[in-house]
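User: I've been going back and forth on whether these two constructs are worth ordering. Before I decide, could you fold them both?

Assistant: Sure. I'll take them in the order you sent them. The first construct and its structure tokens:
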Amino acid sequence: MTTLTHSSDTLTRDALAVLQPGFRGTTAPDWLLRRIGEGLTSVGLFGRNITSPAQLTALTAQLRAERDDVLVAIDEEGGDVTRLEVRDGSSFPGNYALGSVDDVDLTRAVARELGSRLAACGVNLNWAPSADVNSDVNNPVIGVRSFGADPALVSRHTAAYVEGLQSAGVAACTKHFPGHGDTAVDSHHALPRIDADFDTLHARELAPFRSAIAAGSKSVMSAHILLSALDPNRPATLSPQIVTGLLREELGFDGLIVTDGIEMQAIASTYGIERGSVLAIAAGVDAICVGGGLADEETVLRLRDALVDAVREGELPEERLADAAARVRALADWTLRVRGASGPGAAVQEGTAPGIGSTGTDIGLVAARRALRVTGTVEPLQEAPYVASFAPVANIAVGDETPWGVAAELTALLPGTETGTYGGENTAAEVLAAAGERRIVAVVRDIHRHAWMAAVLDGILAARPGTAVVEMGVNHAEPTGSPHIATYGAARVCGRAAAEVLTGREA
């Protein structure tokens, strides 16, 4: 048994402080407010918690009425992964589009505007950017969330994104350390394994994280992946060699280390969330992200009690838990100071920045337009077309709530546009029959990863070579169609930019 130097109340407060839980609903439940009063320092928000800028601002104010420095975190990458605009699609293109433009000033400006909108609604910690080098083109979970496959490009844009976001007073959380790009498995479902050698990992995976640290990223998120060259036994989130030895000591990161969702199957199915949380804190992690799936008081109490029990039983050093809690509070203190600061680079005061869906700036649309790559000759649509959208199963990070495609944007420009959504069970003949005499616009997403999609498209193009093809995922397959438009992401503004090209007019 460990002899405790702190009171039971201090230990419990520290255990609550290291949790970043979610909840259900658009107002804070009573149980969450009570736990904030007892020491909980962070709250995570998801799409289910947000309906409008005014509602989100009221929600964060409700949380701050309990604790002024509470960390309000969100998974707002822009592009395909949006929580602010989960029901409409993002006003900002994602990392892949920004990387394709390769203008670090543009990336910095987009991140600053996104940060300003978050800050205006009272959000002060963003679980972004993704610094993963998407070296496996078949990666099922990163893809367009990455700036690209080149470590140097990803590094410079990661740094610019961190700088832009934090200049708006919102702490960045660079993810998924030490790099989730070279995986063919989604860690939401199972434990991915990367067998690249030590030198490759340092030159490729770690390069963007070095840049993020140099740019002052306030936090880093660990990945639930096994890197055999670094630790053959435990995933990164639970590995002292990776979290403490590599990130803290070798790379010199002194900020907050947050886990990816602890309820993801890569951890939960092998260790369980209680054991996984204890091992993560013991390894050197400072905060446990939970709430994407498990979003209730029972989960918070289970994890709190598991941490307290681990200290009491001598499995988790009390000093390690206290240090983790102190880092959480230090970041909370930073956000409080920045929010109250004045002068260049200070956070915009709540309620003054453009809100969700605002037209206060068109930087997102400007970026989406610049990201487009058009192959072939564009003959602008003169009549309402038929839009055939080929929809693969969405990964959990993106979710299936957020609309994507070009149909809505084309309809705004060409009323009467018709659309249909197709999956692996459909045929080219079905699409052609539904289209009738209308010109077809085929919208695909990561066609190189989906043989069924490529086969149906080939059938359509054989019958209708004038079909326009819009690729809204990773642009890896050979361009086909007349024209072929690559948007480098499926954000709403990407669809709008493609619709403008297809019609020869701006929306």
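The second construct, handled the same way:
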Amino acid sequence: MNHQELRKIAGQLIMIRFPGTVLDEATADFIRTNSIRGVCLFRGNMSDSEQLARLTADLRAVMGPDALIAIDQEGGAVVRSTWVPAPPAAMGLGAADDTDLAYRTGAAVARAVKSLGFNWNFAPVLDLNNNPNNPVIAERSFGAEPQRAAELAMAWMAGSHAEGVACCVKHFPGHGDTHVDSHRDLPTVDKPLSELENFEFKPFKLAAPTAPAMMTAHIVYPSIDAGNPATMSPAILDGLLRKQWHYRGVIITDGMDMHAIAGRYGVGNAAVRALMAGADMVMALGTPETQDETLNAIAAALAEGSLPQAGVDQRLARLTALAQAYPCKPRSYKEDAADREVMAEGWRRALTARGDPQRPAAGARVRLVARQDVVSDGVSEAGVPAAAVAASLGRLYDVELVTYSDADAFDWSALPQDGRYTVLASTSRLRYGAGPRATWTPDLHLALWNPYQALDIAAPALMTYGFAAPALEAVNAWLSGELEAQGRCPVPGFD
């Protein structure tokens, strides 16, 4: 085969991204020329339902009937389509602890994304968050107890599959006990194999018989393979997942543009090593230049035989089977209102109290303290603006808003001692440093994103596990006495 024919095989083994809200001719030509079958869309590719449905239809026309069009619509802070019904975060569902609710939530998510033209959702997260300093998982996890977290995640997945959207559990074999974000560096989980088997690995092993796809973690597990992150580890992908667990679904890497991989190994080399280790599809996000580099590297490996044709044929068959089991066919979406009710139920039942918070009196004078800016950590959407929280509380109280740009530099003692009930709203994922931990004394802490922030501030707290509009509505329902906070945080340290 000539180089271009080999690139066409390579193209079926990678997933790309591209900028913008329309399929430009250069991207369409790149997809056609290289037989690309996998695309992942992000927030920057979306503006509204009409635009997004047109974009996914254009992609289907170029990619053909076996297209895999993917999205990260986990819930909580990790959602790409922000105008459809807002799903509670996994940890919110863990706090509600109801598999039926998890099933209905997964089904509602799938109905929305299928109507937009997607057939593959990179969710649910099976990582067990037992590390309070984890900078990237936190409320994305269903909890810290392997069996129960797996049951809730599998119920969510079953709901999605019932509506025709394939799930991809992540991040195999477990990203929960890290204090490093693999988007920025290469984490290590250095535990004995017996401990990994009883904890990190367990949800993935429980889900393996029914999960149509698994996403790999860019993490080193020295007790299995000290020399390679899981994404590029034959011992983990082929040895553990394929041979020991007999997993038959698709294995896709996490984004190979992440610094843990691209900055350390180079994207082309890493892509070949991931495929040789047992991955079926490489998530070659990056740029057209790095996608070209990836295609050329895979084509060269095919030419020289380091990627044998028989193994490649097996990979292509698994990917085709996934696309045919979950065809990329849009549907009408008449369930929007009913699905918003499902999501609102989830947010309300997730609401968790810590430290016996007391409600301010109706119409009370309230001082709200919150971050000045809303930030994304590169994985999540940006948090809720301080003004939106103030407006929400303003439906119940006389609210004065005070914002800060740097939590460590903010002088809490300078707030007026005028009898106002003080509410701190945490609207980012960042944990608080020593200064706020030692000196901030709100009457009520609204932890509107990362629940671990409730451990940082010595004050009664309400935890929502996310900042979508129904989270603020649940908070107001509690404040007005219509709702009790019945959720139980499903990770250690909150009793």
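Notes on the second construct follow. The chain has a mean pLDDT of 94. The first strand starts at residue 14 and ends at 16.
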